[in-house]
Amino acid sequence: MGKSAGQLVMLIVINGLLLVLGALISGGSFLSSYNLQSMASQVPEIGLLAIGVMLAMCAGQGGIDLSGIALANLSGVVSAVIMSTFVSASTDPSAFSIAFIAGAVLIGLLGGIINGALIAYLKITPILCTLGTQMAFMGLAVVVSGGKAVTVGSPALLSSIGNDMVLQVPIAFVIFAFAAALVAALLRFTPYGLWLMLMGTNPKAALYAGFPKNGVLVATYAISGLLSGVAGIIIAARNVNVKFDYGSSYLLIAILIAVMAGVKPEGGYGRVLSVVLSAIALQLMSSLLNFGGLSNFVRDFAWGLLLLTFLAVGRYRIAGFLPSIKRQTNPSAPSPQGPK
Amino acid sequence: MCVPLISQSDAAPFLELKRIEKWFGGVHALRGVDLAFEPGQAYHLLGENGCGKSTVIKIMSGAIKPSAGTIVLHGQRFASVTPIQALSAGIETVYQDLSLLPNLTVAENVALSEQLVRANGRLARLFDRKRLRQTAERALAAAGLPTDRAFLDTVVSELPLASRQLVAIARAIATRARLVIMDEPTTSLTRREVDNLIGVVERLRSENVAVLFVTHKLDECYRIGGNAIVFRDGECVAQGPIQGYSKQQLAELMTGRSIEGKRYRSAAPSQQTLLSVERLEAPGIHQVNLSLRKGEILGITGLADSGRNELAMALAGIAPAMSGTVTLDGKTIHIRRPADAIAHGIGYIPEDRLAEGLFLDKSIRENEIALIISRLSNAFGIVNQQEGRRVAARLSEEMRLNTKDLELPVGSLSGGNQQRVLIGRALTIAPKLLVLHGPTVGVDVGSKDTIYRAIQKLAEAGMGLIIISDDLPELLQNADRILVMNSGQIVAEIDAEQASEDQLYKAILTNAPETAQ
Amino acid sequence: MKSLSKKLLIGVAAAAVSLAAPAATVVAQDKPVIATVVKISGIPWFDRMSTGVAAFALANPDIDASQSGPATADSAQQLQIVNDLVAKGVDALAVVPMDPAVLEGTLQRAIERGIIVVTHEADNQTNTNADVEAFNNADYGTALNERLAQCMGGEGKWTTFVGSLGSRTHMQWVGSGEENAKKYPGMALVDPNNESFDDANGTYEKAKEILRKYPDIKGFQTSAGNDVLGVGRAIDEAGLSGKVCLVGTGLPNPSADLLDSGAITAIGFWDPQKAGMAMNVIAKLLLEKKELTDGMDLGVEGYDHVSVTKGPGAGVLVVGNGMVLADKSNYKQYLF
Q: Does the keyword Signal apply (chain C) (predicted)?
């Protein structure tokens, strides 16, 4: 579709522009390998959450996942607390790391399945459901951690995820890219992907066509939960400590990234590559402003401006390419509901 | 193209439509319509579903804007009118769904428009209750309804449908309309109420109010008299005093084909039973029994609330039956969800293709393979895109879609093509039974022909088909038998080859119980 | 349509460049850079600290000193800013951590990169060259509580407020306050450690709730800068000024009205301006490779005789004597 190619181009252009701008105001140090690596290692946490939000939105019917960061924190906290009772990070670093990673992933998956089940079977509106689970996850993390930060430590494997590079690219970013590629492949090549996008476009038609709607919904939120778990691992690896209330601002930022990536909040359309580029763009802009010593408030303003620009341009482009579609969905179209 | 009727009288037309066109996406709903309405005249807008009748009415009442053309109201030219402008000009519409406010009383519903129109769309000042009552009483009397306090204060949602229709008409009268448009006003009225309505219409005409009917009931049109305007495929194909046309002629003008003799059905069904339904029970249907043979085409019809829709949804698994037995090809099957129906080989073409069938923003190809997504995937869970493209291409070929680019969004196709996509899609599951719900509603004549031929070919190949429709000629031309439903039960079985449309029509109506007051 | 989108794109780019232009000058210099990063920008406490940083910059024209902070009370956001400054390659960081534990990883990377790290309000931070405290936190908490007990007459129900359960210093203050209250068997602690997240309005709502829940409550000990304002307002509105005691950390100017009305019994504070100056002075000393000795005078009021002891990590703990307790009678001496 012409629409998605256009958005992709726009995102690439924005990213390019930000890199150039950064280089200009910093006399080149913005593009130093240290900074590029530093920025690259800041993207994965929020990027993974944004992909989760994207999937939830694509499912349609008001799909969204507000519990991402809370689940990420919960995964880190619970996994750290439980695993450190069995394995010690200092005496058996690799075993601890593996146990921690497995634990975090499992908890993320479980949390996601809970979300999916509540939404699919109890038919709770996604925004209300994930708002509730967000508070539940955070509350559970407070209880398990006693309200304090939990030290995960720096056992070898985790430490290298947090700090090391492979071919000059931070390992955390590689993990993020890999996860994104996996999700993209899922959407492109599997029945799940087709079902998800069609369902988001027209849930009623999906029902009539016999799609396994509940299965798709649970899978969607489960994947989002899984990504949250991975985000929790990366947070732990980079910060050495995990805490129940880390990243509370990520909730809205993840949604911002998804919307800026052209994901349709009403469902049916979303592209992982766009989400990745969008996350990178927001990171670049944020770091750019920090480099320039500008107040954080300017950053919020700049993000808002970027989002509005993107949405405005997006509307015109869509109108330009596909006038027929916009009006075909007009309710007063000659639908077969004439006098009977 | 017909010429607008301007009579010899002095009364100039107060409403004219000149070269009105309307596009809905890729669909050319109105192709240059010229109409004129003079005071005191009666007009009957006739045509099949989807011919543009509803669209032209919505344009006249300001609900939608035309894509091109001019509206002339009392001599003033407009590119489009707002609802308030139309109301102020005296154009009142009683839509099929009545558009009453169910939680308000009779008096409020009747007089609200009048107050709105007088204040040009604003209800800023305090409500003048006394005036409300007076207006309501006057209008209700003219409509033949009671005018006592109790009735005025009755909440509209508590009234039976027939009374509500008359209240809606009373509302039109209250605003001292110049033109009252009535969309299918007599669907649920008893004979007595229909007579009453015709009396109301006469009174309106005597007060120089023009009336425009949109209806299928040709008998009533003849009783009322006036002018017939026949629409087909978005154009006016004939206009003139209704007495100058016979029913046959009107039907032919509406459908574009002659009814007699053109029967698509030629082959005979086999003797093997394909489907047997016993004592099926679901909300809206009671103890339904039917059977279908292989290669047989069964038509099912009835009024809107006769249970025919519920029967279709029960077979398709969308609104599963609560009890009863369904046997398909010798095996008893349970249809609890749409996926069950598909798995057992029951294909379903939904009634509302836009809301229930198609994924409008998605490509034609994706729509066509929607039912077989899991069948197209291999052991690793990867969908075979190649095969999907092949299947879609073959289907498009067979259903003769008028585009080769299958990546186009399906929303860009015309109604007829869209319907063909849905039928083609249903064939991907190699169904034994195909249930078509209103297969040619809003579909142009050319597409109808293609669809009927396709249906016949499928039957000849041994598939069993059930067509649920209120297009009586369609059923008479295509089916072997026709079942008539009423109040959730099957009340008549008619041999399609022998029957006439009149017979069928009577069968649908006569079994309707007298609606109580 | 395409030209419109191009125009908009150019517009955004132009806006971004014009925003960045003033910043461009800052970066292209060779002066050593000391970047102060606070918990959250835009609240009175850290606005006051920025005056200290500005004063330092004025007194040291050979150093580029500035302050920044996140717009929200989120440690992840503060982390981002610190990360970017580390990547930018500043010479020294002066950080008031929202949550010391969260910053450990990145501060370690900073030190590895050769950046001097000075912290404040984080005496458990391991990855820091020096942590500056205005006073011994235990002593301060005890002093606050003692003043509260005095007002309460050693009897009655009392409760505590903190910025968040993760605020190290706040938890220390209420912790030693609780210890002190044990001296008074008549004082009963109810619903301790209410989190305020530095939100004056939220604190006000919570205080109202507590006043409703315990109509006979007699005392509040608060921690975050805005807490005393929120609780004070609630007390004032309930008409309990002078009847319920409130002692907490707060700045004189914002607390003036409530001190006068008696809603606030006494405020405790240290001058964030001086703390900010002290952090930057220490950073400068460390940049110049000078040693921090016990008892040295930093040249900043309240830090003229600091104690320097070993910190939890490889760095030191620098404790000053800048505690102030003010009430209605003497707050006007302090003009901030």
A: yes
